């Protein structure tokens, strides 16, 4: 989804740096999720405002 937002932003503004930054954010999020899965720290997705 972030990649689509990045692409649309690039098409509208022509700013390649914005596109590249948003793609990098997407890559970081994927790496975090991958690391959490490997460590067994995945919590159920949902509202992050709920206290555990």
Please provide a written account of the structure.
The chain is mostly helical and 52 residues long. Helix content is 69%, strand content 0%. It has 2 helices and no strands. Helix 1 packs antiparallel against helix 2 (16-39).
Query: In this structure, how is the largest beta sheet organized?
Result: none
Strand content: under 5%
Number of E-type strands: 0
In the predicted model, the low-confidence regions spanning at least 5 consecutive residues are none
The N- to C-terminal Cα distance equals 28 Å
Number of helices: 2
Task: Report the principal-axis shape.
Answer: elongated
**Secondary-structure element string:** HH
Helix content: 55-70%
Please state the CA-atom Rg, rounded to the nearest Å: 15 Å
Summed over residues and divided by their number, the pLDDT gives a mean of: 77
Report the structural category.
mainly alpha
């Amino acid at each position: 989804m972030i990649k689509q937002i990045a692409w649309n932003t690039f098409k509208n503004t022509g700013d390649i740096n914005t596109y590249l930054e948003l793609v990098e954010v997407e890559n970081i999020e994927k790496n975090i999720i991958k690391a959490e899965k490997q460590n067994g720290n995945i919590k159920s997705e949902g509202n992050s405002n709920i206290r555990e």
